[in-house]
Amino acid sequence: MAGLFDDTTPAEVKNAKGLHLITMSTPNGQKVQIMLEELKAIYGTEWTMTKINIMTNEQKKDWFLRLDPNGRIPILLDATKSPAFPVMETSAELLYLLKEYDSNDVFGFKDELERSQALQWLFFWHGSGAPYQGQLNHFGKFAKEKIPYAIERFTNETLRVYGVIEIQLSGKYTGEPRDYLAGPGKGKYSVADIGTWPWVKGWGFSGLTKEQMDEFPHLLKWIDRIAERPAVKAGIGEKYN
Q: Helices in the chain by DSSP H: which ranges?
């Protein structure tokens, strides 16, 4: 059967009328969950949701691959478009929501240079942070065989990436500490932070120690600062479990 849906597509996906999120509350799922909750707090944005269990490989089934050939959560489906428009890859999903549902750029920037800065940090984490920390989680938590070299390598790379973020937040080379990754002055909470925080706040799960994290005091304050946002609490909260 051609098209986005087949007979095995869950009814709530096939019959979605607005935004629909297919997710599991992993760090990647939480990025888009948080963004939606932030938009809800500002604009009253609404969406429906299908929760799946990636441990059972639901995301590898044909109905899912029609929407995302890469077989990764989350998927954002915009059924306000005709035909419905699926978006894969978390950074692309954040930017889609920013463009289509954040008309005032509350979580983005109208200034092109500020926007570029936000994109740089969003892509930095997507390309240089999540892959390393994800591999650290795999080899440290889930691999059938513990390979010391792999654990050491991905520990060191994750810490290196944290160090890059620490440089930005500390103002080491600018002389001005920042609250957020992008924007003028101390920065503004934006998609750059939303796309990074869900992974970084899980440093303990990844096997990093408090002693290791003490090397990044500004990063730790950034984690705590974002964790206090009501929409962030909602975006990682019980409704997604």
A: 11-14, 27-43, 62-65, 90-101, 112-124, 130-137, 148-170, 191-194, 197-200, 210-213, 217-227, 230-235
69 cis-preceded (ω within 30 degrees of 0) = no
Cα–Cα distance for residue pair 225/241, rounded to 1 Å: 23
Task: Report the distance separating Cα 20 and Cα 13, nearest Å.
Answer: 7
- Euclidean distance between CA atoms 123 and 91, whole angstroms: 7
Q: Please state the separation of Cα 41 from the chain's center in Å.
A: 18
> CB of 213 within 8 A of CB of 203?
yes
Tell me if 93 sits within 8 A of 32, measured CB to CB: yes
Rounded to whole angstroms, the Cα distance separating 76 from 98 reads: 13
C-alpha dist (Å) from residue 21 to 14, 38, 70, 131, 233: 12, 15, 16, 23, 18
Segment 72-114, tens digit of pLDDT:
999 999 999 999 999 999 999 999 999 999 999 999 999 999 9
Q: Is 81 exposed, middle or buried (0-12, 13-18, 19+ CB in 10 A)?
A: exposed
Enumerate residues 6+ apart whose C-beta is below 8 A from 75: 21, 22, 23, 64, 67, 68, 86, 87, 88
Query: Degrees (nearest 5) of the Cα angle 130, 197, 36?
Result: 105
Distance CA 84, CA 100 (A): 14
